[in-house]
C-alpha cells in the first residue's frame, strides 16, 4: 500500500547515476549531461541534481516543496557514505559545489558556489586532510566570496577590492603568491564584509550553507539579467532551473593540479584538434576570469602527460557519443582528472555547416540529422558580404552584433546630415548614442548604424534588422558627442566625415575603409563558384551538400517575389520555382507616371481610355520579359494594389508650387487639376482606403487593361514557342462578390485575346487572402478563386490593427522589452492569431475546392520559423525575396525532414 503511494510522489532529487542526457527538461542541461557522463563511466565527482520541478514549486509559492528537505537529506547521506566523509565535518569534511543549470544554457546568468561545507572548524580539517594550509584557506576565502556575492547579495567588488589590497600589501600581483597567513587574514576581512553588508554572520552550519545556496539558485532564475537574456534568446520564462550538488574536486592543490576548458573541435572552423585553455593551481572560474594567464591546452601534454592522454581519450568518447562538437570543463586534482561539465558546444555559422558534413563523412550522423544541425538563420549569416579577413585593420572597439552585414561609410552624427550626404552620393554610417523614431529617415539613408548604448532589442537594433541594414549597437567604449559631431574612443577621435567600417556580424568597429568581399556562399548560389571546383572552399562544399539534401526532402515549393526580369533571373539562379508575387505598381512609376497621372485626372471615358491604351503596350512588354525569364515556371502577377495618390505628387510640394504660381499670376492648369485630385484622393488611412480590388472596381478599364497585357504577353510568348505560366492575382479581396465581378471581366478579356490570337491561354485567376474577412469566408471565396496566396504582411496589419510603418518605429521596442512578443509579428508569423486564420482559411478553401493551390507571399515566406508553420498547415509553396530563397529552401527541407533526436535549437 505504501509502495503504491510512494510511487505517486513526485521525485525532486536524482543521483547522477539516475539521470541521462534526455532529461534536460527535468535535470537541466548541466545535470542531464553530468548524469550521462557518469553513466558512460567517465570520472565525474559524485553528486545529485534537484529538478526544475522543485524550482517551479519554489517560484510559484516562494517556498521549497515540503518533501525536498528529506529527499536532499537522504541523497546527501548516500553521497557522504560513498565519499567516506561528512558535509563540513570538522576533521574530515566533504565539500560540495551548488551549481545552477537550466534546460538551455544561460551563460553567466546564474552563479555557482564552490567549497560549500567549509567553516572556521572544517577549514582546519581540510588543511590536515590535504596536508596544505594555504590550499584550505584559499578554498575558504573563495567560499565566503562566492557565497557572499551569490547567496547573500553582497556587492562582489568589495571582496575583489579586499583581495587587491591584500596583494598590494604584499607587493605581489597574482593570488597564488598569497600564503596561508595572508589568506587567513583575508578570510577574517571577508567575514567582516559579510557581517556589515548582509547584516548577518557567514553561516557556520554546513547544511544551512547548502540550503541557502540551493534557494539562491532557484531565486537566480528571476533576476533582471536572466529575464532579459531569456527574452532575447526566446527561452520560455517558466522552465525553471535545476540545481546540481556536486562533491568538490580541487584544482588549487598546487602545480600538479589545475582546471581547464576544451572543445572537441574548433568552434570557428569545425576542424578536429586540441582547442582549449588550461590553468595550473586554480579553481573554477579562474580560467575564464582572466586573472592569470592560461596556457593553450596542448601544453598540458608537457605538464601532465597522463592526464592529457586521458583527456584526449575522453574527448573522443564524448564526440562519438554525442555525435557532435562538445565543450567541456575539467579539473585535475593532484594528477587525477575529473570531468565537471559537457554540452554540445556553440559554433559559428560556417562551422555548423562544416561540422555537419564532417560528421556525415565520419559516419556519425546521417544526412537527415545533418539538416537539423544547421539553420536558415546561419545560412543567412553566411550570405552577407563580409570584410576581407586578409585586410589590415585598425580596430576601434566593439559593440553588440545587432544586425549582420559589413558596412563602410563616412561618420555622421545626425539624421539630417545622413540624408543630405547620402543624397549627394556619399556612403554614410549613422552614429548615435541611441536612435529614436525621429532617426528613421537617417537610418534609411545610411549604410549602417552604430550606437553606443542599448542592446539587441534597442530601437536601433530592431529597426535595422527589420530593414536588413547593418547595425552595431551598445558599443560602450565609444563616446558619442552629437553636438561636436565626433566620437572618442580612448585616445582616438573620429570626426564627422572620417571613414569607419562596422561589422554587424561580429560587432567590431574599425577606423578607415576595410575592403569588403562578397560571400563565397552567394558566389556559389549565383553560379560563379562551383562546389566541385578545385578552389571551392570547404564551406561552399558543405552548403552545397546540405542544400541538395534539403531540396530532396522538402515538400514546400519555393517561389520568389520579383517584379522584373533581372530579379526573376537571379531568383531562378537561387533556386526559385516560380514567381509568387509580381507587384505591378513599380511598372507604373518612372517615365510612366505621367500616363498614370493622366489616367487619374481623366474626366471623360475617352480620356481615360486614351491613357490606358498608351499604358497597355508598356505593361505587355514588362510581362513578356518576365515570362521569358521564368519560362516554364508559374508567375503570379498581382493587379494594381496601392492607393492612387502614391502615383501623384506630394501634397505639400504641389500646394507650394500652386501657391507660388498663383502669386506670380501664371497658373498652370494641370497643376491645379492635379492638386484637386490629390485632395480628392487624400485619405486618413490609405492602408484601409481605396486600394486593391477596390481600385479595379471603381476605375473602369484599369484591371482589364492589366489582364489584357498579361494575356497578350502570354500569347506572344506562346507564339515564340515559349511556355508562359501566368497566374492573375486580385489583391485585398474581402468578399467573394468583389472577386466575382473582377473575374467575369477578366475572363471576358482573356476570351477576347484568345480569339484574336487563336491561342488557347490557360490563365489561372486567384486572390490574395490578406484581410480577416477574406480568411473567415475563405470557403466562399474559393468558389471564385483557383488559388489563394496569403498576404501575411497586410493580414498581420489588419489582424493586429497595426499600421506597420507607424508601429515598428514607435513602440515595438517597448513591446519587445516588456516581452509582449519575443519577436515582431511582421518578422515571424504570429501562430496563435494570424496563423490560426491562415490555418482555418486553408481548410475552408480546400473543402470548397480540393485542388486549390495555396501559397504565401508575405515577407514571412522567407522567415525560418514561419516556413515551418507554412509547411505544417499544408501550403503548396512559399514566396520570398530572391535573396531569401536559399534560406526558405533549407528551412522547408528541415521542416519536412523527419529526423529526431537532435538537441539543436
Ligand atoms: P557555469 O555554468 O557558470 O560554468 P559551473 O556550475 O559549471 O558554472 O561552475 C563554475 C565553475 O566551477 C566551473 O569552472 C566548474 O568547472 C567549477 N566547478 C563546479 N563544480 C565543481 C566541483 N564540484 N569541483 C570543482 N570545480 C567545480
Ligand atoms: Mg560550467
Ligand atoms: Mg497586401
From TrEMBL:
It comes from the Bacteria. Gene3D superfamilies: 1.20.80.30, ATP-grasp fold, A domain (3.30.1490.20), ATP-grasp fold, B domain (3.30.470.20), Phosphoenolpyruvate-binding domains (3.20.20.60), Phosphohistidine domain (3.50.30.10), Pyruvate Phosphate Dikinase, domain 2 (1.10.189.10). Keywords: ATP-binding, Kinase, Magnesium, Metal-binding, Nucleotide-binding, Pyruvate, Transferase. It catalyses: pyruvate + phosphate + ATP = phosphoenolpyruvate + AMP + diphosphate + H(+). This is Pyruvate, phosphate dikinase. Its EC number is 2.7.9.1. It is an enzyme of class 2 (transferase). The keyword ATP-binding applies. Residues 426-507 form the PEP-utilising enzyme mobile domain. InterPro entries: ATP_grasp_subdomain_1, PEP-util_enz_mobile_dom, PEP_util_AS, PEP_util_C, Phosphohistidine_dom_sf, PPDK_AMP/ATP-bd, Pyruvate_phosphate_dikinase, Pyrv/PenolPyrv_kinase-like_dom. NCBIfam families: PRK05878.1, pyru_phos_dikin. Its cofactor is Mg(2+). Residues 541-893 form the PEP-utilising enzyme C-terminal domain. It holds the Pfam family PEP-utilizers_C. Belongs to the PEP-utilizing enzyme family. Residues 68-293, 300-350 form the Pyruvate phosphate dikinase AMP/ATP-binding domain. One of its GO terms (molecular function) is pyruvate, phosphate dikinase activity. The keyword Transferase applies.
Amino acid at each position: 500500500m505504501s509502495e503504491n503511494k510512494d510511487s505517486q510522489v513526485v521525485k525532486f532529487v536524482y543521483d547522477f547515476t539516475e539521470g541521462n542526457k534526455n532529461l534536460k527538461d527535468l535535470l537541466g542541461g548541466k545535470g542531464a549531461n553530468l548524469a550521462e557522463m557518469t553513466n558512460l563511466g567517465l570520472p565525474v565527482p559524485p553528486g545529485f541534481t534537484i529538478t526544475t520541478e522543485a524550482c517551479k514549486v519554489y517560484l510559484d509559492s516562494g517556498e521549497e516543496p515540503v518533501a525536498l528537505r528529506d529527499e536532499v537529506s537522504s541523497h546527501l547521506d548516500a553521497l557522504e557514505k560513498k565519499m567516506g566523509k561528512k558535509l563540513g565535518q570538522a576533521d574530515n569534511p566533504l565539500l560540495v559545489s551548488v551549481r545552477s543549470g537550466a534546460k538551455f544554457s544561460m551563460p553567466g546568468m546564474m552563479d555557482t558556489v564552490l567549497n560549500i561545507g567549509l567553516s572556521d572548524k572544517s577549514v582546519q580539517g581540510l588543511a590536515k586532510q590535504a596536508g596544505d594550509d594555504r590550499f584550505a584557506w584559499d578554498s575558504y576565502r573563495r567560499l565566503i566570496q562566492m557565497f557572499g556575492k551569490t547567496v547573500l547579495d553582497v556587492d562582489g567588488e568589495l571582496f575583489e577590492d579586499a583581495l587587491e589590497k591584500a596583494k598590494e600589501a604584499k607587493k605581489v600581483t597574482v593570488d597564488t603568491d598569497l600564503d596561508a597567513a595572508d589568506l587567513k587574514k583575508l578570510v577574517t576581512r571577508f567575514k567582516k564584509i559579510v557581517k556589515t553588508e548582509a547584516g548577518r554572520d557567514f553561516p557556520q552550519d554546513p547544511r544551512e550553507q547548502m540550503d541557502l545556496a540551493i534557494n539562491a539558485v532557484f531565486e537566480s532564475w528571476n533576476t533582471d539579467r536572466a529575464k532579459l537574456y531569456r527574452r532575447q534568446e526566446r527561452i520560455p520564462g517558466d522552465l525553471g532551473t535545476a540545481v546540481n550538488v556536486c562533491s568538490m574536486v580541487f584544482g588549487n592543490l598546487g602545480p600538479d593540479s589545475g582546471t581547464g576548458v576544451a572543445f572537441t573541435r574548433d568552434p570557428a572552423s569545425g576542424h578536429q584538434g586540441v582547442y582549449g585553455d588550461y590553468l595550473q593551481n586554480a579553481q573554477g572560474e579562474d580560467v575564464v576570469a582572466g586573472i592569470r594567464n592560461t596556457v593553450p591546452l596542448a601544453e598540458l601534454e608537457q605538464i601532465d602527460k597522463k592526464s592529457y592522454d586521458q583527456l584526449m581519450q575522453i574527448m573522443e568518447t564524448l564526440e562519438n557519443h554525442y555525435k557532435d562538437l562538445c565543450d567541456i570543463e575539467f579539473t585535475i586534482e593532484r594528477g587525477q582528472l575529473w570531468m565537471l561539465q559537457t554540452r554540445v558546444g556553440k559554433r559559428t555559422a560556417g562551422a555548423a555547416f562544416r561540422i555537419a558534413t564532417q560528421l556525415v563523412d565520419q559516419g556519425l550522423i546521417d544526412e537527415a540529422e545533418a539538416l537539423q544541425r544547421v539553420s536558415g538563420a546561419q545560412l543567412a549569416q553566411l550570405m552577407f558580404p563580409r570584410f576581407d579577413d586578409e585586410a589590415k585593420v585598425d580596430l576601434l572597439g566593439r559593440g553588440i552584433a545587432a544586425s549582420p552585414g559589413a558596412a563602410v561609410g563616412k561618420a555622421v552624427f545626425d539624421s539630417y546630415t545622413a540624408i543630405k550626404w547620402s543624397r549627394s552620393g556619399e556612403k554614410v554610417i549613422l552614429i548615435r548614442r541611441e536612435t529614436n523614431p525621429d532617426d528613421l529617415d537617417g537610418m534609411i539613408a545610411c549604410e549602417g548604424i552604430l550606437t553606443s548604448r542599448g542592446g539587441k532589442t534597442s530601437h536601433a537594433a530592431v529597426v535595422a534588422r527589420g530593414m536588413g541594414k547593418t547595425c552595431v549597437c551598445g558599443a560602450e567604449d565609444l563616446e558619442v558627442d552629437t553636438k561636436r559631431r565626433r566620437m572618442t574612443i580612448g585616445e582616438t577621435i573620429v570626426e564627422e566625415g572620417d571613414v569607419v567600417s562596422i561589422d554587424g556580424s561580429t560587432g567590431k568597429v574599425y577606423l578607415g575603409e576595410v575592403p569588403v568581399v562578397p560571400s563565397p556562399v552567394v558566389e556559389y548560389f549565383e553560379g560563379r563558384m562551383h562546389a566541385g571546383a578545385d578552389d571551392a572552399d570547404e564551406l561552399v562544399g558543405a552548403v552545397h551538400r546540405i542544400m541538395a539534401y534539403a531540396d530532396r526532402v522538402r515538400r514546400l515549393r519555393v517561389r520568389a517575389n520579383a517584379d522584373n526580369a533581372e530579379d526573376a533571373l537571379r531568383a531562378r539562379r537561387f533556386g526559385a520555382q516560380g514567381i509568387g508575387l509580381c507587384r505591378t505598381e513599380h511598372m507604373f512609376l518612372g517615365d510612366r507616371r505621367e500616363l498614370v497621372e493622366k489616367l487619374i485626372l481623366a474626366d471623360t471615358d475617352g480620356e481615360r481610355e486614351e491613357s490606358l491604351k498608351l499604358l497597355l503596350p508598356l505593361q505587355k512588354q514588362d510581362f513578356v520579359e518576365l515570362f521569358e525569364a521564368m519560362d516554364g515556371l508559374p508567375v503570379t502577377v498581382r493587379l494594381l494594389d496601392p492607393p492612387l495618390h502614391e502615383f501623384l505628387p506630394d501634397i505639400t510640394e504641389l500646394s507650394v508650387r500652386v501657391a507660388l504660381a498663383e502669386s506670380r499670376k501664371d497658373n498652370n492648369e494641370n497643376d491645379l487639376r492635379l492638386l484637386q485630385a490629390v485632395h480628392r484622393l487624400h485619405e486618413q488611412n490609405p492602408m484601409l482606403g481605396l486600394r486593391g480590388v477596390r481600385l479595379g472596381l471603381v476605375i473602369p478599364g484599369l484591371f482589364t487593361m492589366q489582364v489584357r497585357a498579361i494575356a497578350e504577353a502570354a500569347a506572344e510568348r506562346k507564339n515564340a514557342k515559349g511556355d508562359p505560366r501566368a497566374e492573375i492575382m486580385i489583391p485585398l479581396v474581402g468578399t467573394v462578390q468583389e472577386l466575382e465581378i473582377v473575374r467575369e471581366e477578366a475572363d471576358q478579356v482573356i476570351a477576347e485575346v484568345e480569339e484574336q490570337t487563336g491561342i488557347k491561354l490557360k490563365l489561372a485567376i486567384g486572390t490574395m487572402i490578406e484581410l480577416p474577412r477574406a480568411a473567415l469566408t475563405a470557403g466562399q471565396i474559393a468558389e471564385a478563386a483557383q488559388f489563394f496566396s496569403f498576404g501575411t504582411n497586410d493580414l498581420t496589419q489588419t489582424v493586429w490593427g497595426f499600421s506597420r510603418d507607424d508601429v515598428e518605429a514607435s513602440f515595438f521596442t517597448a513591446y519587445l522589452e516588456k516581452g509582449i512578443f519575443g519577436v515582431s509579428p511582421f518578422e515571424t508569423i504570429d501562430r496563435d492569431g494570424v496563423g490560426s486564420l491562415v490555418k482555418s482559411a486553408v481548410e475552408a478553401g480546400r473543402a470548397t475546392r480540393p485542388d486549390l493551390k495555396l501559397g504565401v507571399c508575405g515577407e514571412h515566406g522567407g522567415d525560418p520559423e514561419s516556413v515551418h508553420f507554412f509547411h505544417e498547415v499544408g501550403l503548396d509553396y512559399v514566396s520570398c525575396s530572391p535573396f531569401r530563397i536559399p534560406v526558405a529552401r533549407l528551412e522547408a527541407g528541415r521542416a519536412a525532414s523527419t529526423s529526431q533526436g537532435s538537441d539543436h535549437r
